Amino acid sequence: MRVAMIGTGYVGLVSGTCFSEFGVEVVCMDKDADKIERLKKGEIPIFEPGLDELVKSNVEGGRLSFTTDLAVAVKGADAVFIAVGTPSRRGDGHADLSYVYAVVKEIAVAMDHYTVVVTKSTVPVGTGREVQRIIKAARPDAEFDVVSNPEFMREGSAINDFMRPDRVVIGAESDRARELMRKLYRVLYIIETPILFTNLETSELIKYAANAFLATKITFINEVADLCEKVGADVHDVAKGIGLDGRIGKKFLHPGPGYGGSCFPKDTLALTKTAQEHKSPLRIVETVAEINDLRKVRMAAKIIAACGGTVRGKTIAVLGLTFKPNTDDMRESPSLDIVPALRTAGATVRVYDPEGMPEAEKLLPGAVFCKDAYEAMTGADAVAILTEWNQFRSLDLKRMKGLLKSPVMIDMRNIYVPADMAAAGFTYTCIGRPNTRASG
Ligand code: UGA
After folding, report:
1. Distances (CA, A) of 375 to 235, 316, 401, 409
2. Of the four, 140, 276, 314, 332, which is 20 to 30 A from 18 by CA?
3. Average pLDDT of 243-252?
4. Whose CA is nearest to atom 34 of ligand 1?
5. Taking the complete model, does pTM exceed 0.85, yes or no?
6. Is residue 439 predicted with pLDDT exceeding 80?
7. For residue 102, pLDDT beyond 70
8. C-alpha distances in angstroms, 383 versus 281, 314, 429?
9. Residue 430 Cα, ligand 1 centroid: separation in angstroms?
10. What is the CA(264)–ligand 1 centre distance, in A?
11. pLDDT, average across residues 113-118
């Protein structure tokens, strides 16, 4: 079994590597020559726990290789996966499919026997059908099927998500294509992972509906957290109390500064555009996206309020810049709204992130970049935690008190216990739980 993976971004590189771990021969292709050169040397362009060892062992095992030549990758491949980017199109929020369609044209030319062309990138409903049309027009002689196989992995736990998924969704419309996909996922089949076969459109929509639902769940608990603050309730207990109901489920009910990343913001927007176009608007999802955008900006106001109503002339330490821990990804991160808003309000902002600094330096001009959390807090009037990296969960509170001008913490991920913070002498502001003042 041989697979070509076109595009070595997050989804492409992790999926390709994991397929090779399943024992399949995988050729990963990207037109970025520098990236491919680095991959050949074993340098991984993204931070994803465990990925470097997995790439190394599969390259050594002869199952995984890299090329910039699409025809080389596609030649002899039984399945060609398309995992190129589908960013939001500037201006209208639709998914930009120009990269997808460009590679489809090249794949059509390079196919040399029956090939299953699989969309792995998140693509709007109707894309698979268009891919079919493009290939048919370019190669009326070719034997092929188009399949939709969306990916549900999360950054930071991508390998585990790929190896032990809750389900695999496959939109395939011929027995031959279904059989090939079943063979490809044989390892998961053996461990009884549910594999859902659908038509192309259903599979494409499942991906968007899943992300939109998760974004809705987060936004729901974020709004409930705001209400908790007003009425003196504890959002964690509310989340537990509702999450124990199996119909609701306890995951993705953790409040925070708003969701970010390369998927939820882009996919909710693209889904609402598709829905509007078909005159079947998804008003809940439209509202979710709007609330989340506003929330990120509102979080800066929360920090300012915790600093006594103004940060003019003050210094704020910000810990955590990436949109979530265990990634170096800064896309749509709340920090991109919060840090500039604090600076506009007159603060000096000292920042630190374990993996996101190189990217953050490009995106947050004017912030002071520090080498660790304690350096960021030195001389600051308050510290705000924006991302729940493990190393921020057990900070040395005594040392912090000595470094900060005033012991004020704004914990946007609720990683500390309010009573403990009060006992440690901190004025502590969190999300959806009562704030505490120093009692020690
Ligand atoms: C998300 C989905 O979870 C994956 O299933 C999907 O495959 C992926 O998008 C994609 O479409 O490629 P990801 O963006 O990597 O994965 O990250 P998540 O773990 O879902 O977190 C997204 C955002 O929601 C983060 O900013 C996170 O802090 C926030 N979040 C998550 C919360 O604020 N509360 C929660 O309870 C969970």
Report:
1. 32, 12, 13, 16
2. 332
3. 98
4. 254
5. yes
6. no
7. yes
8. 41, 11, 10
9. 21
10. 7
11. 98
Averaged confidence pLDDT in the chain: 96
pLDDT of 67-76, one tens digit each? Answer: 999 999 999 9
Same fold yes or no, 2-198 and 199-440: yes
263 noted as active-site residue: yes
379 CA from centroid of ligand 1 (Å): 34
CATH code, residues 199-440: 3.40.50.720
Q: Pick the residue whose CA is nearest to atom 20 on ligand 1.
A: 154
Note whether 210 and 217 are within 8 A (CB). Answer: no
Of ligand 1's listed atoms, the one at least distance from the Cα of 122 is 11
pLDDT confidence bin for 92, thresholds 50/70/90? confident
Q: Does any ligand 1 atom lie closer than 6 A to the CB of residue 7?
A: no
- Counting ligand 1 atoms within 8 A of each CB, the residue from 48, 149, 263, 326 with the most, and so the one to mutate, is 263
Output the CA–CA distances (angstroms, integers) from residue 382 to 95, 296, 340, 360, in the order listed.
40, 19, 16, 21
Q: Is 3.40.50.720 the CATH number for 2-198? A: yes
The two tokens of residue 97 are: 């499919």
Q: Whole-angstrom Cα distance, residue 128 to residue 173?
A: 11
Atom of ligand 1 nearest to the CA of 158: 15
Which residue ranges make up each domain of the chain? Answer: 2-198, 199-440
